[in-house]
Amino acid sequence: MSKKHLNSMLGARRFGKTLGGLSLVLTAGCAVSEMPEENLPEGSMEEAAAQGSRPIFTPAGDAAQHTLAEAISRAHVVVNLETLGLDNEDDIEVKRVRIDELSLAHTRIQQKFKGLPVFEGEAIVHLDRNGNLSDVTDGFVKRIRRDLSVSPTLTEKQAIRAALDRYVCESCLTAAPEVSLLVMRHDGEDHLAYRVKLRRIDSTHDTAMPVLFIDAHSGKEIHRYDNLQTAQGTSLYSGTVTIGTSSASGKYYPEDLTRKVGTFNYANGTSTVYHVSDTDDLWNGTDQRVVVDAHFGASMVYDYYKTVHGRDGIDGAGGPVAYAAVNGGAGLISSIVRYSTSYNNAFWDGSQMTYGDGDGTTFAPLVSLDIAGHEMAHGVTEFEANLTYENESGALNESWSDVFGALVERYVYGESADTWKIGEDCYTPGTTGDALRYLDNPHNANNNGYTSNDDPDHYSERYTGTEDNGGVHINSGIPNHAFYLLAKGGTHHLSGVRVTGIGADDAGKIWYKALADYMTASTNFAGARQATLSAASALFGASSAQTTSTQTAWCAVGVGECPASGGGGGSGTNLLTNGTFEGSVSPWVLSGTGALYVNNGSYPHSGTGYPYFGNAVSVSGSMYQQITIPAGASPTLTFSLNVTSAESTTTTQYDQLFVELRNTSGTLLKTLATYSNLNKGTAGAYVQKSLSLAGYGGQTVRIQFRTTNDSSAITTFRVDTAEAK
Q: Does residue 50 register a pLDDT over 80?
């Protein structure tokens, strides 16, 4: 049977589906039937058709399934290049394919520009078990300036020199700089840039891993942040525990060759790493306690990920390895204790965990279960979403580490009030009952003056300055508290939203799957909300209690809206979903060149995202969402509208926005209101509109915004905070 004949036999039809603000071309029935045939493995279409409704992916998947998933995902991107803001199929490179325990395929794609990687330019294509497109996590950088030259004026050596000239202490660096060429967009401008990674691991308070971006044409610094992923946590001495050791030449070493984890010693230095040994394998000396705690912690973290999430090591493949075991020379996931003297920190440096002894006043040795869990979670994050360590993505990086640090402690010791504290035993060891951070009540943390309520637990309280890499530790309290409310339930003190807890086990599964399959380097709080909702839907179903509580938990901390009903704080039933447009425009459906969406715009009414219409001459477009109005109900549609226009007339409606009610087939039932360039005002100055939906109770209808702009001056219509109650 020919492929051409097969396509005809399947009778595939094309239709549009909006996913995360993208109107993508999908296929009814069998997804592979609409793929460009040259992109699919030989025979895959016939095999998929022969299986009918039988899944084409199975848990984990074999090599052939991974190849097929890659081909389907790539083809979906290729046929939607314009929608995705790309120019040609050479702009994408598949990084990896994961087929999860639910037989869902997730293909991570790196954006390229003229052959170079684009910083934070990523997407994840999600396929269901039958190979159909189910969602797209879109982090692509849209429409990069095509005239940007990718031929650098500076050499790599010159870029390194430019970075070193901007660093305060070149002689303090402890490793050679690393440099790579890429394309990045910063503050709305596209650059060819060298990313220069510096490393200063010297035990001082200036220990850091600066990342500088140098313009490859001008030599100017574009941006920088510190990639040293630190955790200041607890030293929970674990009492008598069993640890895995190996032996060689009559000595024993904390090197578990089964788990492939090992613990080593800086001996209060900063450069030389030593093997740790014991003669009787009892490990009961006072000076050995930090070794035992660190080694036990790393082993339990390994067991937690392996047992609960099926993950083998930090990188998912038994690594990464930093140092070799004495016995047999096997590479080990490495923890190094006794870093420097009186060092009040612990950190993940991209390849290993490093722990300080503390100064005995601010901190005791930082070698406990939640710290081990925190540090290794930084590693897991690096090998999955690789969240950029600054601003909101950096706060998510820190928060996910806090969450999994707490979950590791819970896995070993069981749940208690201390589960939700970070650093409770080693932070200020002379003071009982305090902690460094609190998932259950972030405001209990020590107030360092960054906000009026350090640490913030609601988005309205977030820190927006530049300290702490843009608040990576400070703002972690917001997603930390969202997780706690999801796991344990409760009412947020500020928003008044009540969350029904689902238990830490299910919450942990959602958080892990979101990290592994739905988050990218640039994910912000709104994106994390969407990622966890996608994960909850995949694991438990879109209408499940777990998914509803996940949405409510984020709403409680001020990120996104509450579900339409149930657990939302008693504010009435909103028939619209995502009327605040945070993270994506979905489930609203966009069409036409005159309907657009921005996730982080300059003029939101609330949050950061909003749709806008017009914004050019000679364009038209629309956006709709389908709702069911209960019988006998007479809801009111409310939304905030901002109109800006270059039209000078005070009498003629040249450009118009129509608010319409249509049936499920798209036939116009009623024009609710019309706005035009005559309603223009200042950018960002919104006016609330209220329109009656009376008379349509018991019907399923579309709420639609539609624009038409003429060929003269530009008018832009911005819509935000829409509700139908």
A: no
